[in-house]
Amino acid sequence: VAWMLTSTTLVLLMLVPGLALFYGGLVRAKNILSVLMQVLVVAALAIVLWVVYGYSLAFEGGNAVLGGAGKFLLRGVTGDTLIPTPTPGVALPELVFVAFQGAFAAISCALVVGAIAERAKFAAVLLFTALWFTFAYLPLAHMVWAGNGWLLAQGALDFAGGFAVEMASGWSALALIWLLGPRKGYGKDPMPPHS
User: Fold this and answer.
1) Which one, of 55, 74, 193, 78, lies nearest residue 133 by Cα?
2) Can you tell me the distance from the alpha carbon of 61 to that of 147, in angstroms, rounded to the nearest whole number?
3) What pTM was estimated for this model as a whole?
4) CA 21 to the chain's CA centroid
5) Is the pLDDT reported for residue 108 higher than 80?
6) CA-based diameter of the chain, in Å?
7) What is the per-residue pLDDT across 60-80, written as a single tens digit (0 to 9) for each?
8) Cα-Cα-Cα-Cα dihedral of 53, 67, 75, 44, to 10°?
9) What is the pLDDT of residues 152-181, one digit of tens each?
10) How far is residue 19's CA from residue 57's CA, in Å, rounded to a whole number?
């Protein structure tokens, strides 16, 4: 349990301040506060959505593509509930697992912010985050990590989130870059990074 809580803490530190300051250093000085707030609020939104319905849709029964509604608002998850691990005879407190996976859901959503920095309004970023989290991240997380997930059944082993976290957010960021086009003034105005 201690290593899982340590890992959760490290992912959250990688998110805020790590990712926020990294992205803040890559944008122009006038946009640093905007990017810091986008990363922070996107992460907070993702964690709230994770608790409300994300955990349930990612890990609770359902079919091979999406989980069920049995654990909406963490119904039935207490400090005493345990979930089995792939190691026979080893179980984890479910709240620890919820926190661990929630940290990865939050950083997945925040990774996309770097691609759209200086290109999208705050409200649009939040709307996109809610939609992407629901219709892209949750099905992918279920398919690769849930016991009855389609990709897991095909033999995919994703221990570090390469598919559900890095590839999903990376391909989505690339699609957004293509959709939004270059930054205003790109190629004409100087755009040195803040730091």
Assistant:
1) 55
2) 8
3) 0.91
4) 17
5) yes
6) 62
7) 988 999 999 999 999 999 989
8) -30
9) 899 988 877 888 899 999 999 999 999 988
10) 26
Number of residues written out for the chain: 195
CB 79 within 8 A of CB 95: yes
Which of 10, 35, 7 has the alpha carbon at shortest distance from 21?
A: 35
CA dist 153 to 137, 150, 156, Å?
A: 18, 5, 7
What's at 137, amino acid-wise?
Y
Instruction: Please check whether residue 144 is in contact with residue 151, taking contact to mean a CB–CB distance below 8 angstroms.
Output: yes
* Main-chain dihedrals φ then ψ at residue 71, nearest 5 degrees: -120, 30
> 146: how many CB neighbours lie within 10 A of its CB?
22
Q: Which residues contact 108 (CB under 8 A, 6 or more apart)?
A: 46, 133, 137, 161, 164, 165, 168, 169
* Residue at 64: amino acid letter: A
Encoded tokens for 99? 């926190």
- Cα–Cα distance measured from residue 37 to residue 54, given in angstroms and rounded to the nearest whole number: 22
3-state secondary structure of 92: strand
Q: Nearest Cα to 12, choosing from 92, 143, 107, 81?
A: 107
Provide the token pair at 4: 């899982």
